Automatic annotation (TrEMBL):
Protein name: Periplasmic protein
Signal peptide region: 1-23
Organism of this sequence: Thioalkalivibrio nitratireducens (strain DSM 14787 / UNIQEM 213 / ALEN2)
GO molecular function: electron transfer activity; heme binding
Residue ranges the record marks as coiled coil: none
Keyword NAD: no
């Protein structure tokens, strides 16, 4: 029985290592964000980048993304926009991490032009 395990074990280890080897293969477009031209979400017209899902879920509820993707602001002004909607348009409060992510996304992808 012992000698069989000697053959069996390396075979199992080899099989287990396969997903790791395969996972290491670089994919053509990384995590969906190609360098250079930004990838545009066909549904919203928004740039697909870090924070996209969060901004889509929180910022396309009352108005479409067109309300903000045609604009470019500094982080400070994006925050002022959010505060204005929170103060007078019924926008809910965000926890600090969510607000950071939203501002990072807006500042990075829709800066002043
Ligand atoms: C609770 C509803 C609501 C949500 C959610 C919401 N907004 Fe608004 N927003 C409004 C209303 C109402 C207006 C004014 C009417 C309009 O322009 O459609 C507005 C207007 C704006 C404007 C234009 C302001 C101006 O100067 O005319 C921007 C930019 C904007 N929103 C960005 C955002 C962003 C970014 C988010 C996500 C953080 C967001 N909105 C989420 C209600 C909302």
């Amino acid at each position: 029985m012992k000698w069989q395990a000697c053959l069996f074990l390396p075979a199992v280890l080899w099989l287990l290592s396969m997903p790791l080897v395969l996972a290491d293969e670089p994919t053509a477009d990384g995590d969906g964000v190609a360098a250079g031209e930004p990838e545009i979400d066909p549904e919203t017209g928004m740039i697909r980048a870090r924070g996209f899902e969060t901004v889509k879920n929180n910022c396309t509820v009352c108005h479409s993304s067109r309300t903000f993707i045609n604009r470019g602001y500094t982080r400070k002004v994006w925050l002022e926009q959010i505060r204005w909607m929170q103060d007078s348009q019924g926008l809910w409060e965000f926890d600090p991490e969510t607000e950071e992510l939203i501002l990072d996304y807006l500042e990075t992808n829709y800066p002043p032009r």
